[in-house]
Amino acid sequence: MTDNDRRRVLLMSLIRADASWQTVAAELAQFGWDCDVELVELRAEDLKSVIERFARGQTTSGELEEWADAVEGRDDIHFAAPVIKDILAEIANPTVFGGINLARAGRWLAAIK
Description:
The chain is mainly alpha-helical. It has helices spanning 3-15, 21-28, 44-55, 61-72, 82-92, 94-97, 102-111; strands spanning 40-42, 77-79.
């Protein structure tokens, strides 16, 4: 498996927020944030799934923020639509954008449908 193949596998796990995404984020640190090529795509369905887990109480606002922060600035992830990048910025920077709560999660979900 090449470095890019390994990186791609890790990135897919990160964007799906698999159970071990924090460990995956730490493993991705060996590759750095910069990349000449976008190796994976964060789609609306991926973001929706992560936000829905928060809305169902399966993850905390702090965990959601940490996940978004781990995803937001990566050059190796392509964002399928501008709204995805915008929502990620809001989640990763809650003090700037008004926090993370169920009402905002509902608005985010409505925006990506």
